[in-house]
Amino acid sequence: MSEAVFAKPPAHGRIANWLGPQISQRLLDHAQEQRENFQVSAIGSGESKRIDLSLRQSRRLRQLGDLEDELRGRARETLPAMFQQLGATRFEPSKFELEMVAHGDGAFYGKHRDTNVLAGPKFSNRRIISAVYYFHRVPKAFSGGTLRIYSFVGDQDAGAFIDVEPTTTRWSSFRLGFRTRFCRWSVPPAGSRIRVLPSIAGFAARACAT
Within a domain: residue 3? Predict the structure, then answer.
């Protein structure tokens, strides 16, 4: 197989206006109500789980309240479109991992592979597909925050990665195993309409298989 295949950016999916303005507003309201419960984002899992501010700076929330079942249902309904856009083999997820991540000035996530440690002899609960739904207040009061997805062997060379802009209400999905990074957010103090919560948040869903 040609090495050029591994240097190409991976397929990714995009669905504009995935939830619509009403649910996006409910997500914002929930984030505001739960602002004191956001925790510093960690990296890794299990015994290797840790906080490393040199690699990741953001805050996340796992308690999604009444929205959790609705979001899980929407993610499941979106699976056929994701499979088609990603060219992925269809499978029935054993679970969806859901979280809300808030980003303020200086937030970022350095280059990493968005997958978990394969557990057990049969590699149970493997993450297969990851997706991010951006939402923020309008008008937009930040810059940066681009999701960059690299090819298997690419780095900074032109054509070796793709950039997904943090467009509000957009659902973006990608297959696991590729390196990704979230570029640094910049939120001018005078531009933010929220003081107690960072200006942009994302809802992340990961489909896992047993």
Answer: no
Task: Answer yes or no: are the C-beta atoms of 102 and 200 closer than 8 Å.
Answer: yes
- Model confidence, pTM: 0.83
The Cα–Cα gap between 14 and 127 comes to: 19
CB contact at 8 A, 71 and 30: no
Residue 77 is assigned to a structural domain of this protein:
yes
Distances (CA, A) of 145 to 108, 161, 198: 7, 15, 12
Q: Quote the number of domains for the chain.
A: 1
CATH number at residue 78: 2.60.120.620
Model confidence at 200, pLDDT cuts 50, 70, 90, reads low
Using DSSP, state whether 205 is helix, strand or coil: strand
Domain residues for the domain of 72 are 8-209
Distance, CA of 70 to CA of 72 (rounded, Å): 5
